[in-house]
Automatic annotation (TrEMBL):
<protein>
    <recommendedName>
        <fullName>AAA+ ATPase domain-containing protein</fullName>
    </recommendedName>
</protein>
<dbReference type="Pfam" id="PF00931">
    <property type="entry name" value="NB-ARC"/>
</dbReference>
<feature type="domain" description="NB-ARC">
    <location>
        <begin position="361"/>
        <end position="526"/>
    </location>
</feature>
<dbReference type="Pfam" id="PF13374">
    <property type="entry name" value="TPR_10"/>
</dbReference>
<dbReference type="GO" id="GO:0043531">
    <property type="term" value="F:ADP binding"/>
</dbReference>
<dbReference type="InterPro" id="IPR000845">
    <property type="entry name" value="Nucleoside_phosphorylase_d"/>
</dbReference>
<dbReference type="InterPro" id="IPR011990">
    <property type="entry name" value="TPR-like_helical_dom_sf"/>
</dbReference>
<feature type="domain" description="Nucleoside phosphorylase">
    <location>
        <begin position="11"/>
        <end position="135"/>
    </location>
</feature>
<dbReference type="InterPro" id="IPR027417">
    <property type="entry name" value="P-loop_NTPase"/>
</dbReference>
<feature type="compositionally biased region" description="Polar residues">
    <location>
        <begin position="1050"/>
        <end position="1070"/>
    </location>
</feature>
<feature type="signal peptide">
    <location>
        <begin position="1"/>
        <end position="23"/>
    </location>
</feature>
<dbReference type="InterPro" id="IPR035994">
    <property type="entry name" value="Nucleoside_phosphorylase_sf"/>
</dbReference>
<dbReference type="InterPro" id="IPR002182">
    <property type="entry name" value="NB-ARC"/>
</dbReference>
<dbReference type="InterPro" id="IPR053137">
    <property type="entry name" value="NLR-like"/>
</dbReference>
<dbReference type="Pfam" id="PF01048">
    <property type="entry name" value="PNP_UDP_1"/>
</dbReference>
<dbReference type="Pfam" id="PF13424">
    <property type="entry name" value="TPR_12"/>
</dbReference>
<dbReference type="GO" id="GO:0003824">
    <property type="term" value="F:catalytic activity"/>
</dbReference>
Amino acid sequence: MRPKSRSGFAVAIICALPIEADAVEALFDETYDRLGKFYGKQPGDANAYINGRIGEHDIVLCYLPGMGIGSAASVASSLRVSYTGVRLALVVGICGGAPYSSSDQNIFLGDVIVSDAVVEYDFGRQYPGGFQRKTDVKDILGRPERAIRTLLAGLKGKKTRIEFQDQMYQHLGIIQQSETQWQHPRYEDILYQASYHHKHYSRGSTDNCCCFDSGNTENICSEALEESCKKLGCDEKKISRRRDGTEAVKASVHIGKVASANTVMKSGEHRDKIIKAESVIGFEMEGAGVWDNISCIIIKGVCDYADSHKSKYWQAYAAATGASAAKTFLEYWTPTHREERKRHWMVPFRKNPQFVGRHDEILKLEQWITHQSGPSKVGVCGLGGVGKTQVALELAYRIRERDSECSIFWVPCFSYESVEQAYTSIAQTLGIEDMKPAEAKDRVKAYFSHEDAGEWLLIFDNADDINMWMQGSDTHPALKDFLPQSEHGHIIFTTRNRKLAVKLASSYVISIPDQDRDTAMKILEKSLPKNHFQGESNTATILLEHLAFLPLAIIQAAAYINENSMRLKDYIDLLQEQEADVVELLSADFEDEGRYKDIQNPVATTWWISFQQIQHLDNLASGYLSLMACINPRDIPQSFLPRLASKKKVNDAVGLLKAYSFVSEQAGEGLLSLHRLVHLATRNWMRKENQFTQNILKAIDRLNEVFPDNSHGNRKLWQQYLPHALLVVGESEIQHRREKYVDLLQNVGYCLWSDGRYNEAEELEVQVIETRKQVLGPEHPDTLTSMADLALTYQYQGQWKIAEKLGVQVMETRKQVLGLEHPDTLTSIANLALTYRDQGRWNEAEELQTEELNICSKVLGPEHPDTLTSIANLASIYRNQGRWKEAGELEVQVMETRKQVLGPEHPDTLTSMSNLASIYWNQGRWKEAEELQTEELNICPKVLGPEHPNTLTSIANLALTYWSQGRWKEAEELEIQVMETRKRVLGPEHPDTLTSTHNLAYTWESLGKLNDALKLMEECLELRTKLFGPDHPDTISSSEAFSDWLQAKDSSPAKTPLSAAQQDSDQYSPNLLGHHHLTVPSSDRPSVELASEPIKPKPASAKHQKRLFFKRIFQRG
């Protein structure tokens, strides 16, 4: 009787070529329907079907739209949608044979291969040592059903094989009688040596043929591939085996491993390598794709030897033998009657149509629970909301689809009561009778532990409470005691607590990481109406970054967007509101069919139960979590965490936070990071518990203890601590208590200043001054120190008038309060001198600096670091006046003394090297300048960092030396690098940035790019006029250069760019600088970046102001 609907078809036959499908249909005992006229198919299914009967089996024959694994996988997937009852698929057709199998049995054309495993031999990775295939499909994609495995094992017996081949030959005779194309082709069966290729060997009219590509002997032109071996003239001496085509030889059947790939195997050498490595008996292109979706067997006739000597003469005959073998196989195939054991399904959620990603994790889980020697218990752990339940749900549906004998049960584990209720429901489903409710767990455990229970899978979802599982209580025993054990059963736990996962499943634990960007984007796409953010992919990416790519947060956001018909940008705007508003947004409940109804869904509250569990398990861990939520969530130094207990307890506390996936540790650095949304949720939780202010104060007290000063050796540490300190000092709870933490504010400001972050430093310094004026008074030494700091910051921002006004005020007050020879007063004099220098007021600068140096030498001594700084600053003033010899003598003195006193890598020493190199440059001693600059530049990035202002100055000065030598192309590359980095780090209007702009314009003019140079110099001139005024030396330098170039453009053609040889030359043109190289910088050249050395206090002592080495500002021009 014909099936009434598509669900009645249990066997599918899949063919890639029309000739293969024709051979199969020729062996149908009855045809029911063609192309879905009667049975139809599901909407969206693009497959073409023919329905019929072979023996006692109702068959659906499916055509592939093309060859290859991808096509087969797509067709098999659609087949499962329309024909839900299919339990077995036969991939039938033609293939390439392995001439000599591992059993030393020859395989000939027309023989049949039957798969018991599939090797996807192009599925793996290319490593430097060669290609490494992943593993057998048999082990990866699920095993064929037990009955199939048993039948294949039986067919390998000698007598059964002979019987099989005889029956196959009878079917072959029937099909051959129906149509002549299925007859034996009567062509010789020839096997050539593996290394001999089917290609042109004499040029003739094919001079341009790729067959003669000596670089690749396997290149074969399309013309050669279309010709027969006889027409092409293949050398018979290269034949390794031949069989007369007139011999009436019966086709043989071979069972073994089949190689599957997306490309046709047409290399004898590659074929033999695969045969040797994998022991395969044939090569084809569809099996792996089908095997990934349905239990299947590959049955194909051999039409060639998987080399370049392919021939279409054997295809029809091979298709006929393959179809005949498939019909014979079905005569042996008797599927297991489902009535023998009822399969149970107790899962509370429907299949999630929006599920994407997690391929590797699900693949690993499938391997573990389907492998014969795999673990009986498996743990799935990860952050709450990351998608553990959805992974388990997807796996449950996949197992259900692939294994018709496996019963699957789902146990929610929110409480002891929910587990007991689930066990009771399972017992009722299994038909366990005469049971008291209290006996349910023991009875269910006993049932599943018995062999007669068959195959089963238990999923314990949200198994988070470690005490409930491992210790129990006075009223409830530990749940681990009620876990069944059986060779036929498996248990999966999903949990937020990795420590619990390891206790329950040992090493068989899979961590679910954050989603990657592409998968998160697919989740968002599936959760919103079609084309909702078409053309807004960048906006969608920004939204996902705000949501930390967390699946729960994405689904919640999509639900809110859908409900309120809003754009993605509108939701992003909501996420950028004040923290309280963001928490309110992320606390809004939403409907989701894939989550439990009575459990809190929103992101902002989903971890509250975890917080409570951590509080209960480890007070130290709870305290650490609260502290980390008060600072920046990224890259937290472990030294920030107070050592309030033994090292073991500290490690246990941090380990517990890692176990809940709240915290991750950066390999190598030891820095901790708190998940961005957990950070937000923890702050919200602390506010709800009235603990936020208390913990903020603990955090800033801890920062007050551990935040380092800005000395050279602490740079890496302060850079780690800065983001955390900046977040905490900005909290309103701290602003109200600013006087208590004014030293920390000052310390943070110093570190910002030392990193060249002057605008941020200014904000804190203003706060420090206001606080100290209120608390200490305007003339207190600490208040004056703060004012001096701010003046110096203004100087480095290029705000020299403001810096001068504040500097004069500080200097005069210190003279009155502290006296002329006090170190703080000397600091004020030195810094004011440099302010004059930067304004071009060199005589005033020299007078002040000389006064300060004389006092320093007398009070502090000639080798004191502050005295050396004073000498260096006087040298910088001499440089500005063009007094190069005097400046050079002072710089050599300072550099050599600093090397001895401070060391060769100290920032002050590097500054001296840079300044001395600039003097060499101005004296025309460019080779000496380059050597000194290169030495300095090798040290700077390592000591200061690649983007520190001093490092950028070093690069800029080396570029200037290249320019002076006529190496303009090299100079251009460095100057572009420096200019772009300064724009980003210092800002587009910073004096150093304008110096880079000025210099790059000069280099472009030298390269003949006059229009580009004029445009850039005009921009520089406008900004310098705006910032410095028209009479500043830098402004004048840019103005003169711009005027000269504009006049040159109007009077003569633009300069021709240099040739590559000229650009790469190490020789400079004597006309490049002319007589100007010994004079004050002029508009005939770019400007040197001199390293000035103002004096900056350190926060080590509020009572005494110390000097700090200065950042270098040099102006060229």
